[in-house]
Specification:
By secondary structure, the protein is mainly α. The protein is 56% helix and 0% strand. Mean pLDDT is 90; it is low at 1-10.
Length: 280
């Protein structure tokens, strides 16, 4: 059944409810309520909310209608008994027309799994999706691997970057292959001394990221980079950068002999590769 969506539009009401329609909505037995939930007239739905037979499952079905107006949503929200139901609160939080202040309160009460879902829900209010992202970022270390993997596949760009730093083993390949991950995310991750070794190793071995010059430099500054990858990168590093690396206190002492050897060899033979920049 077609509905007019929008924060102020609501449902179509070109056919007014008769007194019989209103009485039916107010007193219909439970078996008739599912039919009335699909009535296109907002007046009928408002009266249906007064029906004593209305149950949690009925409300969740009603809240599945994306064209409900804020009037209907607010009438549900002020009913204290209904708002004890987590399913009802969740359905309201996910509704595209939920009043912003109400939605902000409801998002704070969502379980972590539902916060994850809300971050990429196409019907969620943009401000609420953003708030859900904030809560997910705060709870990220506590999320189970399955939810982190879901976020790696479908999550927004800010969460993708945070997931890389988190370094969940089960999601790492998906994160590094994500089209949303960018060079800035990778460089920020590599700037962290405490970045898990598995993340550094995965970046160093990743065809896309290890081909970027700035990422190679960052890997040469990180002590967790495998020596084999360091040796593979050194021939591509410009002479000026080799000089900086050879004097940098942030470069692992185990890398320095190899850097100095490459530098000496380059200076002796005058072979200095041009600084190459790859783009994601």
């Amino acid at each position: 059944m077609e509905e007019d969506a929008g924060l102020t539009g609501g449902l179509r009401t070109e056919h007014s409810a008769t007194e019989s329609d209103r009485e039916r909505a107010r007193t219909a037995p439970q078996e008739e309520i599912p039919v009335l939930l699909h009535d296109p007239r907002e007046e009928v739905l408002e009266i249906l909310l007064e029906n004593p037979g209305l149950q949690e499952n009925h409300l969740c079905l009603l809240l599945g209608r994306k064209g409900l107006s804020t009037v209907i949503l607010e009438k549900i929200a002020i009913h204290q008994e209904w708002m004890k139901s987590y399913r009802v609160r969740r359905a309201l939080a996910f509704h595209p027309n939920v009043p912003l202040l109400l939605g902000l309160r409801l998002v704070k009460e969502l379980y972590a799994s539902d916060l994850v879902e809300l971050t990429f829900s196409p019907s969620g209010h943009p401000a609420l999706r953003h708030l859900a992202e904030e809560f997910v970022l705060m709870r990220l270390p506590q999320l189970p691997p399955s939810q982190k993997l879901t976020l790696a596949r479908r999550g927004p760009v800010r969460i993708i970057g945070a997931l890389l730093i988190d370094g969940c083993q089960e999601a790492l390949t998906t994160i590094l292959d994500s089209p949303l991950l960018n060079e800035g995310h990778v460089l920020r991750a590599l700037s962290r001394i405490t970045l898990p070794a598995r993340v550094v190793i995965a970046i160093a071995n990743h065809g896309r990221w290890s081909s970027i010059y700035a990422v190679r430099l960052a890997l040469l500054h990180h002590s967790q980079t495998p020596l084999a990858r360091v040796l593979a990168f050194l021939p591509s590093i410009a002479l000026t950068d080799l000089r900086v690396l050879s004097k940098s206190a942030s470069v692992s002492s185990s890398f320095q002999p190899h850097i100095r050897r490459e530098l000496a060899n380059r200076m002796q033979h005058g072979n200095s590769p041009a600084r190459r920049i790859s783009h994601t």
